[in-house]
Amino acid sequence: MTSSVSSVILTESVKCVKYLTSIDRYLFTAFQENGNETYRTKLSQISPSLLFLSSRLSSTTTKTTSFITNSNSSNNIKIIPSFLLIMSLSLSTGGATRAASASNQRSQQPIVTGTSVLAIKYAGGVMMTADTLCSYGSMAKYKDARRMQSINAKTLVGGGGEYSDFQAVTELLKRNALEDKCTADSLYDEDENVECAREIWNYLRSVMYNRRNKMNPLWNDLIVAGFSAKGDPFLGYVDKIGTTYEDSFIATGFGSYLAIPILREKYREDLTEGEARALLEDCMRVLFYRDCRALNKIQLAKVTKEDGVLISDPYEIETNWNSASFVEPKGQLDGDGGW
Length: 339
Known about the structure:
alpha+beta; eight-stranded antiparallel β-sheet; 339 residues
């Protein structure tokens, strides 16, 4: 009687442990291949099976405990500790998967960020500007960060938001550009092999929307400047959830509040290159005054048909702190002008 009960309990235990081990391996593989979101989806799909096995293990454990209570066989007692150990490991949230997820977590919020990027169409092409500051929270951490990148001879991309995500986006675009060049029919007709600014803008919309649907967005507001396939100046905007639009002038970050009114007032379609540069510098000067995440060290970039993409070295714009609002005491208090 004792040996038959022991064999039945052992058989049930082995079956349940095999099922749970295979489920744990299945979840671990799903996490390794596709990340945490797929793991959660797979876990929800097999949750009925887990509940069934859990109840079956509970029943088996009760029978085993009752059997051991009524038996003095030392050999049978050895079954329980190892069995319960495997059961606890398998029924924990993912088992080995749980440990793996802790070491593979991805950033779900911006950490090191850049602020405004401004761009404007003018008579000869498109011009863009951005400062070189990246902030770690409220600390001005990196003061020489380049937030505008040339993708090819026709396209310039600038970005605000998480700087590491911007680096990932530009590396992706440059890999695509290199692949297009290497797989082209001819290596000499470069203008025919590169994507135009509009094509890259549409591609970025799909990339940003795809990451947004995975609940792991690229935390950037991007501006794409250049020329379309027809040779017309192009200026487009893409945000972290895939929203896009085109315009004659665009500003991201704090610039969408402070610079857009200035651009609306002073913009003309026939602006010369010098006028476009002066207008953008005026906007960046206002942002330096009013945005605590901005810097007076900026870069200018332009895209023209003749010269392609040109990005300047960083330089400092002139500022003036002698206006009455900065000098006169506030709140009827004598002092250094603090609030």
